[in-house]
Design a protein that fits this description.
The protein has about 475 residues and is of the alpha+beta class. Helices cover about 45% and strands about 15% of the residues. It is built from 17 helices and 10 strands. The longest helix has 30 residues. The chain is elongated, with a radius of gyration of 32 Å. The two termini are about 20 Å apart.
Length: about 475
Amino acid sequence: MPVTMPAPLPLRPGAQRLLCAVAALLLPAIAVGHGQGAASATQAALAATPLDLPAATADADIARVDGERIGRNGLLLLQAYLSLEQRKPSLPQLRDEVIEQRLLARHAEKTFTQAELFPEQRVAFAPQAAVDDRLVGLLRTLYRDRLDSALQAEAGNDLARAIIAQTLPDAAGLQAALGDPRRLRVEYRLSESEQAAAAQLQLLHYRLPSGGEGRISLADIYARQNVQGRISLHQLDRDFLAAQLRTRLLGLLSVDWASRQAGVAAIAELRRNLYDRELARALMARYGLGTDMHASSEHLQELRSRVTQAEVNAWYDADRERFRRLERVRARHIRLADQATADRVARLLRKDGSNFAEIARQFSIAPDAAGGGQLGWLARKNEADWFSELAFAQPPQRNSAAVRTPAATAASAQWEIVRVDEQQFGHHPRDSETVRYLAAQAIAEQKARQEFAALRQRLQAKARIVLAQQTPATAALR
């Protein structure tokens, strides 16, 4: 159960709302190196929005979740970014959301494999690479001109001062590691031998201004690509490789500089928060929840298959109006021989239909023309013809446009103008396939939401959530 220190800051019930401010933190601002546009409402607000960004010396513990730290500076950076998007949750709200996402993320990692959580990564970016790019985009948005000038001063215009050694292999070297570009691949991924060869091919040895050194291999660059990027590498595109290498180094330098401003812990926490969000989103998708609730979910399909007829009946009785449908229409029509006549007749008809019968008697070529085009009541059929479909789709008390009848040749086509005078509604039968499908879908989604809510409650009940004692650094969280 949650335990707090003296002067606790209570965990708000609002933490249950996973998709709140932080859930909106998909960062389109600067998707570095992947050809995405940088224009956004965020950047439009940059010039007019002064940002009060945290200093490393001001960082403080806000909470601990089973011993894992959540710090003030990481939350402030999130809040600053959201303020540019005209969303500004309070720090307590943000803290609670970050705590909940941390719990969901840890559960996701323990319960499912990466392939189960992120099946799309076969063609999309790996989640770690996507989060790294979002982190860099967030930092470059928040620190904007300061970061650019700092990198120019520390690394030079071409980043040369950060490079200890660089080797860009020729096409033959790339082919030796990645294989023949003419080879047909069912899936663009490296075999074990290709992975080993790509890992041995060191492209860049760099030094960060903070003093750390590192190396980037071909395997590192390959792992950061979506399927289009992997195809470019397998096609031995050296220009693309060079651009990706520079992008990676620029990202590392950006994170290094920001870590000296807000603190290493704050930037690491920020990245973890972004990754937690991806894991939480993937976990919701496993339950069949989220932005695309009708996407494939084995769990949702299983819940649907277990819905009983008694549950369907109860759901139908409780919300019968959801199954309201149009049963009959009382309609009139005018049949015409060609489009030119049809267009002319359509212009002659009054909007209120007061001359419809007169125009039908004068121009219609249908057998019912003498009766003003009256069709009487048309009932819904299981297999309706095209004319019935047209009549049932037509709003009442309005003349339809002239519609060409289905015909193999223009010579045999005719044109119809329809007016529906009255509609009568009923309901889908309780035992119909429509009711069964819609009810099972709704019942399964409701059960999935209940299961997910119960999971969140269990995770919070089991976790040791310690909230920081109030100090001058944390007083703003009140």
